[in-house]
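Re: folding output
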Amino acid sequence: MSNSKINSIGQTTWRLSMLLPLMMIVFSTYLIVGVAMPVVPLYVSHELDFGTFAVGLTVSCGFLTALFSRIWSGHYADVRGAKQAVAIGLVAGTVAGLLYIVSLMFVSTPNAAISFLFLGRALLGICESFVITGATVWGLSLFGISHAGKVIAWLGTALWAAYAAGAPLGVFLYEDFGFLSTCLVTFALPLLTFLAILPLTGPESKKKAANVVTDTVQVLKSVWLPGLGLAFTAIGFGSITAFGALLFADKGWGSSWLVFTSLSLAFILGRLFFGHLPDKIGGAKVALVSVLIEGVGGLFIGFAPVPLLAFIGAAITGIGYALVYPGFGLEAVRLTPPENHGLAMGTYTAFLDLSLGIAGPALGLVADATGLTTVFLVSSAMVFCAFPLAVVLLKK
């Protein structure tokens, strides 16, 4: 092995060791999201006896609150510091767990139970927003713009590793201990993570307090195009998280958690093997190919006559979606100055939240009208809409 290759491996290992605490913070936060992913639709549908529209609305309300808190979290991380942003997110996650518990106490009164569940999901959206934005700004401050794609990719790997572990864990706990297990995990994990980060030293802020409206307008002009591309591709991911378990239940297939695990493991492998490509060849090129792969995965699920093809479709979707976020995200970061990276990532990710917030209820209506299979065909068509946007970014 050549010296240059050895040095490259050594530098990669060093960067990963520096980023590991942030990856663990993201992992623990999104593990509670992964645990709830296959469980909340079943809780709302089977225990509270609501329809698919309510399921989509319950799943999506967290994305909607994340949407409205993204700009706030990005601006807060830029001005007050990344560690403080992460801490606020973890506190919100702990309170979300408490609201889950209250929801379970009112299970005999479904309207009250789902109301408290809505509140918990809403706070969980704020938790996600502050943690991932704060962690990303923290990572960018450590490694700089030249490694922005890797930072985004590695933190996303931790996120999806949590999804991969959380989905089967959530189903296992739900089957043996009911929704209470989800409530307790959601309460305990962010609280323990909050205590763990107290000794850590966060990066100093690079920005003084400023007019958030003016900054947001300027950043939005830079990131709207990659953000719109992200929004279209998020629908493919969102269709699986919201309706994957229900599709399997509707068809009488077992092991629905494998859909989420296939999606997540493929995502992780895509990040591990190809996560360097956005920094190396450009985010737009990577996004261009990834969009096509993800769209094909949705078609596999929609036309699957047996569960094996649905698992394969989920895996293809995961591989494609793996590099969409860092691909479009790298374009967003490069178009904004360093002192606005938090706001840039918050604004960029807000497009994802907007997409998932709208897609959940909308796809729920599609499912009510035409069946669950159609959901995945429609979402795949939406993913393909991101292709011409990637072409425009490539030309620019």
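--- second protein (sequence, then structure) ---
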Amino acid sequence: MCCKSNPAPAGQSNNDDTPGLKYLALGDSYTIGESVTIAERWPVILAKDLTNAGKSVKNPEIIALTGWTTRDLLNALENHKPSNQYDVVSLLIGVNNQYRGRDIEEYRKEFRELLLKSIGYASGAASKVFVLSIPDWGVTPYGAGNREKIGAEIDNFNKVAKEECDREKVVFINITDISRKALNDPAMLADDKLHYSGKMHQLWVNEALPKVKSLL
């Protein structure tokens, strides 16, 4: 979502020649890890934890930027044009659509485009793609006084994303409920008090790990 600090780099490429599965992570501030270290980004943690669990995965290629909406990510993919030879692809996008008051049916259309692109990047295999739900930034200090409305809107956007995932038989992983634990645990928030800390990113990975491992 739109942040209070400087945007992170648009992407992290992977020139790693070591053996392992190729992983592409698409998204926004949550995927690029606004206000956390590279090692604390959830895609980086996931690749490490999968490798430790016996599924060797290279460091992920990340295409994400703080503030991106679904349209921004679509535009970036037109410019970047990833290959279609990834072993696993993740997608987490939509918080900025909600934050900016964008139409939810617009989100459905653009999210579906991104989902189909993700499947294409995974050699056309929907079974190699997974989607994480949008975290609820309403639990941060910036959401104080408007938490119920933000949370309800986030739920509506996530409902759309899950419907589109079910339609394409793509795994949808709910991390929204986990994100809401930050309301009572400041250690789950990054220093900017708007994004999430490495501790939270690890919790998201803990939730996703068994489901993603089964895809590989």
